[in-house]
Amino acid sequence: MSEERDNLRLMHHFAVSAHRSIAPSPGAVAVWRDLIPQLAFEYDFLLHGVLAVSALHLSLTSQVDKLANSALALRHYTAALALFRPHLSSITSSNIFPLFAFSCIVPVYVFGYPHVSSFPSNPLPAMLEMISVMRGCADIVRSGSEWLASSPFQHLLLPQPTDPAQVLPTEIEAALTGLSERNNQTTTRPALHDAYETAIEVLRECFKLAGNMPGQQVTGLPFPIRIPTEVLVMMREGDPMALIILAHYGIILHWLDTVPWMTGWGSQTVSAVNETVGEEWRDYIAWALEESRRTTSEV
Questions:
Q1: Which sign does the torsion angle of CA 155, 160, 166, 169 carry?
Q2: What is the spatial distance between Cα 188 and Cα 236, in angstroms, rounded to a whole number?
């Protein structure tokens, strides 16, 4: 009976509060509030995912039963993953919607759970793992893009590209131009040079989105999904150029600091990169470091 009451309590909290923290944009609120709970009653992995993220949201936003709720979040998420994985071998027009919904829950949980367990002293390995997780979720989107694009789930997909003529604030454009100049100076392999330039262009797009859609979680999605694989590999290897690019993505996350799942990830990422790279790279992280020290109310 206690488990049943817990589940009802968590579903109620999801319906009245937690869903709003997950929705990446205003258009997605109704999808999370109405459609995804309906699907959850048909697919156990999604039901456990909804309960997990609801318990996590409670643990992050309330001191009441904080430890009990974090334990519930872990239990439901573990059960959800075990039930979710077998479905990946056969993605169809029927199961693409619950699979996609759960793939949206995964990064929320992965970003949020360290706040109720133990936040890493060095966030870089965890950040790179989260980027890999989000890239994996994007594979599900690619498998069913046509079905998703013609459904209400289109509100959860990546936003359309911004106007190419849109101009960034001077200080942001100067920082990104500095990254390109440093790439020209230090990257000798043509293929890697081009990969870094692509990542810088993705950053430019993210900053434009952040200017157009301030505080919306969707602005943090394009970078992990669209950067070339080579850039992620070089981040894992600790290449300074790759890490400086990652630090600038940290500002996109820092601007989402008021979202319970995202608190601290942006500024901690910038700080960790600053401590990792050599003195000769400090000029190229200076703007990101200064921006990361501003509170989101100042942005």
A1: positive
A2: 19
